[in-house]
Amino acid sequence: MSSNQVNSQNMKLEVVVLPVSDVDRSKDFYKTLGWRLDADFVTSKDFRVVQLTPPGSEASIIFGKGITLAAPGSVQGLYLIASHPQDQVAHRVPVANINLARAPNSLP
Q1: Does the pTM of the predicted model rise above 0.85?
Q2: What is the rounded average pLDDT of the residues 32-42?
């Protein structure tokens, strides 16, 4: 591996793929959170892609049928950061366990 630094470029994370077991249930869940439905395309009985974007985010999630070979629920280490999660999430959807941890150096 070379230690030469590559010229810096602006980069953005655009899409995260989530493996799900129930596409319609997942779509309804994220819509209940107020996420914008960007796409829901079915091209065959074996392929469907759904894309949603959280309010204020430049990154989206996609899931569906024929999108990934990963097992449903296998994604780990993703964080949804909300300025007031108790207001924005907890009062819209029944959630068994919301971690209201505060990021280091965040404002109260």
Answers
A1: no
A2: 94
